[in-house]
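Entry 14: structure prediction run for Tail specific protease domain-containing protein. Input pasted below.
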Amino acid sequence: MLKEPKWFGIKTKADFSRPGRFCFEDFIIIEKYKYAGKNNPDAYNGKVVVLINEYTQSAEELWAMMFKTIPGVTLIGSQTAGADGNKTPIPLIDGGTMVFSGLGIFYTDKSETQRIGIVPDIVVKPTIKDVQNNTDALVNKAFEVILK
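Run finished. Output tokens:
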């Protein structure tokens, strides 16, 4: 889908030399996912639709974020959970565990994704009538976009 790699996000991490300070740095936790795509002169040029909703979270949000930066890709559905980033567990004295995200995830323009989510290009939310009629509103919209 891309003729060359495209940078799609940045992260923040704690600056342990200055408590309370966070610094932007290159994306992402795993180096091979720093860029979307690779050098490919025969890249696919057709339409691509990606379905997302409020249950899309974590790594799937990073994929949606990456797809959103690629020309020709349309995200359809509802805003994602806004729960991307790593999980940092902290053991508690009673044997329980508290988990939080220790990284901030941002688009390359430094706009946030955490707590906001990935916003679709076309908002489609299933209705009660869709469920009653066994109709998948997102898939129907995807076909409409692809066949247009």
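Notes: The mean pLDDT is 86. Will compare against the previous run tomorrow.
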